[in-house]
Description:
Elements: E1 3-8, H1 17-32, E2 37-42, H2 53-59, H3 68-86, E3 89-95, H4 103-112, E4 119-122, E5 125-128, E6 135-140, H5 153-163, E7 169-174, H6 181-198
Parallel strand pairs: 1-2, 1-3, 3-6, 6-7
Antiparallel strand pairs: 4-5
Amino acid sequence: MAKLLYVKSSVFGDGGQSSQLAEQFIEGWKGKNAGGEVIVRDLSADVPPYLDGNVVGALFTPADQLNDDQKAIVAYADKLLAEVKEADEIVFTAPMYNFALPAQTKTYLDYLCRAGVTFKYTDTGAVGLLDNKPVYVITTRGGIYKDTPADTQTPFLKMIFGFVGLSDVRMIHAEGLNMGDEAKEAGIKAAADEIAALF
């Protein structure tokens, strides 16, 4: 049975533009994968604990030396990672807030970057350890930033997913959403058409 991991980032929940476009993606995916399972990781409803010294310390402590608090941290990180490993495809929403990702989304990605677990360093540099699979990133922006230096999301997301072995990253942009009704409609339609073409 096919599995899709949906990583949901909008602070506006189901009302967010990225969430609505992701729902369209999911409907198309379900139509193509009858009986498939969708795993939802809602980063706004269940905000990942900030990557502080306690979290990093737990992730680098040998399993037989963990205290109870550290065990809980590692179990949480392992759960996030298991969802990625078990999925055949991932749809990842990335609304642009102040030229970057939402804070909870960046923290989520921090949990996926684990030395010796999802990547390792070799004589020729870092090597990702996760099995490659399609990652569809739905970005929503108030302005128009694609293919400009202000688009900090695209290179960062491709780099960090590739860092752990997920190099098949496909960007879907909905832009100009705060530039008037006509621009918003055009931006959403462009992304919706791109999603529809996938299925």
